[in-house]
Specification:
Elements lengths: L1 H17 L13 E4 L1 E2 L12 E2 L1 H13 L3 E2 L2 H8 L9 E8 L2 H14 L3 E5 L24 H9 L3 E5 L12 H19 L5 E3 L9 H9 L4 E7 L13 E5 L6 H10 L5
Parallel strand pairs: 1-5, 1-10, 2-3, 4-5, 5-6, 6-7, 8-9, 9-10
Bound molecules: zinc ion.
Length: about 270
Amino acid sequence: MIGALAILGAAAAGASARWNWWRPAVSGGLPVLMYHKIGDYPPGSKLKKLWVAAADFRRQLEYLRDHGYAAVGLRDWRDAEKGVRPLPPKPVMITFDDGYMNNYDFAFPLLKEFGMKSCVFLVYETVGKHNGWHDPKTEPWLRMLTWSQIREMRDSGLVEFGSHTMRHRNLAELPLDEVKWELAESKLRLEDRLSCEMLGFAYPYGSGAYKADVRRAALEAGYRFDFSIKQGISSIPWNREKEAVKRLLIRGDDGMFDFHLNLTRGKARF
Ligand SMILES: [Zn+2]
């Protein structure tokens, strides 16, 4: 009997450690979902958690639709901040870091099917190439979006783009003049290529988002919104002076309950 109770107790402790369902729901704010790779991970990958299967991504979009969320873009948020047009009552933002070709192959068709907006943060020098910053020992290199795919996504009106630097270096470890170059050069070149303002910036590895001089440089480069990888939901209106926009990491091994907790509690796990 005591053994059974101990097992039950351990199971309950395990569940509450993983799922903080007992937290009160967060009301308001703008949940920003952070994805990387959509599809099936390559054999031998040591980064499986960064892959969300297309079927899971579809289920997540269904969840958003069925729960009344409206996927907004960076321009919508900018317009809301300027007082042009308020955000819808249950906004959500769907973001992808790095700009993998699998975003075009697997996410874009579903985003079109559901009519949902999203934002992809590009690494300028890797467009049309592969993720050369990455150590291929943990996973083979992957193909990145091409300019023609990017233009097609832009022209759909559903996908906006932001900067994720020139080379995906760790900004917290670079001299400040190189940080400034990564920020300004990628913004300039992406704007030139895509003929639209780069409103958003995402820090590679989330690094530098909490280093005062790096963050100041990002805002001074002219980005209106900077995105960290700190888990959580930033409130609306967002306090730009306080910290970069928080996001919700959507992991490949998340279930739908994790997804629900992320959106409603700002966190699915400890
Ligand atoms: Zn990245």
